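User: Sorry, what's this?
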Amino acid sequence: MRRSPESFAPTRSCSTASSRRAKSSGKLETLVDAERAVRGVFRRWHEKFRSLKAPTFQQRADDVADLARRILRHLEGRDGGSLDHVPSGSVLVLEQLLPSDVIALSRRSVAAIVVEALAPGSHAALLAREKGIPVVAGMPGIVQRVAAGDDLLVDGARGTVVVSPDAQDRGAFESRRKIFEGIAAQCRRLCREPAFTLDRERVSVEANLGAYDDVQLALDSGADGIGLFRIEQLYLTRLLPPTEAELLDELRAVTAPLGGAPLTVRLLDIGGDKPVAFLPPPAEANPSLGRRGVRLLVEYPELVRTQLRALLRLSAERDVRILVPMITLEEDIRAMRALLDETVDALAIGKRPPFGAMIETPAAALSVPAIAPHVDFLSVGRTTSRSTRSQQVATIRASAATTSTRTLPFCGSSPSRSRTRSRCRSRCAASSRGGKRLSRTCSDSASGRSAWRPS
C-alpha cells in the first residue's frame, strides 16, 4: 500500500551525516548522504509544481516524483519496483499512480487500476489509456476500504467501483460490459471506412507516430496513413547520430507494417526539451524558443543531408513526404529547400517526394505567404501561449485547394473519423472521458480476479 510518493518518504538514518562548525563563516554545515540530498531537492521541486495555478503544470508534479523515485532506486541499488510482480488479472488499488508504474504494467497482467487521485491529462493516465487499461480515479480513502483479495467490479465508463459484489451487481455489470463491447466493435468497424464530411468531402485521417508501438495502434484504429512520424526517436538514445544506412534500415523496419499507406516524416526536431548526446545544448534563458528545430538543422547541414538521403531512398519504395520542423522565417525553408534540391541532384532522384513545413509559431503563421512558394504542403501544429505544442496536428496540402488531410485524436480504441459518425464519436468519448474506460470486466469473479495493493 502506498501512503505517499516513495521518493519523498522518510529516509533511512544517515550513517555518514555529521555536523561541524565552519570556522571561516561561522555557519553550521550538515553533511548528508546522496539519497537524502536528492530527496530534499526533488521534494522542493515537487512542491513548486504543485503550487502552480495552471492544472497542466500541476500535473507535472507527478513526473518530478517519478523521476525522483527512479534516481533514488539507482542510488540505493534497487532494481525494479513494487509493481513488478502484480498477480495476473488483478485490479491494482493504490494512492498514487506514476508514469513508470504504468510502463511496467500490461493489459494481460492488470485488469484495471483504481487510484485515489489522478488527473485526466497526467502522463500516467494517458499511458494507461494507450495500453487499454481501465482506470477509475478520484476515490479518496479507497486504499483503506479495500483489502487484498477482495473481489471488485470496476466500471470505467461510470467511474464506479463495487467491492465484494453480489449476484445482482455482477449481472448488471455484465450487461453494461456487453453494451460497451458492442459500441466498441461498431467503432472499430466504422474507423476503417472512408471518412466524409456532411457535404461529402473525402477526408484522409492519419496518425501521429512517436514510438515503435504506435504503428500497430494506428493500423488497428483505421488510420489512412501517417501524418507525422517523429524521426527523433531514432536519435535520442544514441551517443552518435546514425549513418545513412542505419537510418534507412530503421525507417524500413518501423514503417514496414504500413504497407502502401502514405508516410510524412518530420526531420530531426531536437533542442529545447529534446537534447541529444552528440549535440550538447547551449545555455539559454528559454531553450524552447532558442536553438532548436530548423535553427539547429541549418547549423549542421551534414546532419540534414544524412536524413534527406535516407528519406529519398525510402521514397523510391513507398509514398513519403518530408516535413521541416519549427519554421519561423522564409530564409529557414529556403535554406532547407536548397539542401533538398542539392541532395536530389546528387542522388539523381527522378521524382522528388512532397516537401513541407511545420507552421507552429506565430512568426511562421504570419509568414505563410512567403513560406508557401517553397513547399508542397503545410503542417499546422496548434500551440499554446506558453509555446508548448499540442499533440494534434492538421496537415494542409498547399498544392490542392480542394484536398485536405487532418490528423485527429483517437476516440477510445478508434479514431473519430468524421462528422457523419458523430453518434459513434460521442459514445466513445463518453466511455473514455477523464481517462476512465470500460473495456472488460475489471475484476471477473468467475476467474477469481481480485484486488492487489503494492506493499
Notes: The domain at 194-416 is CATH 3.20.20.60 (TIM Barrel). The chain has a mean pLDDT of 75. Residues 167-190 form the longest helix (24 residues). The chain has three domains: 1-10+30-79, 90-187+431-452, 194-416.
